[in-house]
Amino acid sequence: MFGMGKKKVGRDVELLAGAETVAFGPVGIAGTTLPVTEAYRRVEAALADHPEDVRERLVRLLDEGSPAGKVYAATLLERLDPAAGRRAWETLREDTAEFGTFTGCVMGRTTLREYATDRHTGA
User: Fold this and answer.
1) pLDDT tens, 68-121?
2) Which of 17, 63, 82, 88 would staple 74 via disulfide (CB 3.0–4.6 Å)?
3) Which domain of life is it from (predicted)?
4) Cβ atoms < 10 Å from Cβ of 114
5) Across the chain, how many H-helices and E-strands are there?
6) CB count, 10 Å around CB of 70?
7) What is the sign, positive or negative, of the torsion defined by CA atoms of 82, 86, 92, 93?
8) DSSP result, 8-41
9) What is the model's pLDDT at position 1?
10) Residue pair 45/34 in contact by the 8 Å Cβ criterion
11) 62, 42 Cβ separation under 8 angstroms
């Protein structure tokens, strides 16, 4: 069972690695949940059962993922280890890469620097 769980987590982390948009909830008028949001939720659920395996994957995602993937990685890492999450956000504050955001029906664009700064200051 653990092997199968690791494969699913691996596939979900791969999906996060290529994410173009950050969305933590349903989006659009129809309230659709994006596949990347579903993947995020599954990785989040795996934190409790496989914390060290997930941590390794998140650290790699933080280094190698798309800008949106890095946001997902830092968010999940923060849940697993708040100090490591803070360090991740601090690192992302230096990155000017852009990505899309989606909150409800509102689409936007931001940079990792802006997003991490807002996150770190609680804005």
Assistant:
1) 999 999 999 999 999 999 999 999 999 999 999 999 999 999 999 999 999 876
2) 88
3) Bacteria
4) 14
5) 6, 3
6) 28
7) positive
8) HHHHHHHHHHT--EE-SS-BTTTTBPPHHHHHHH
9) 36
10) no
11) no
* β-sheet with 106-111: strand ranges across: 21-22, 98-103, 106-111
Of 110, 113, 114, 109, the residue nearest 94 (C-alpha): 113
- Over residues 20-42, the pLDDT tens digits come to 999 999 999 999 999 999 999 99
pLDDT band at 6 (very low <50, low <70, confident <90, very high): confident
Domain of residue 87, residue span: 2-121
- Split into its structural domains, the chain has a count of 1
Burial of 18 from C-beta contacts in 10 A (0-12 / 13-18 / 19+):
exposed
For the chain, give the number of residues: 123
d(CA 81, CA 78): 5
Q: What is the C-alpha R_g of the chain?
A: 14
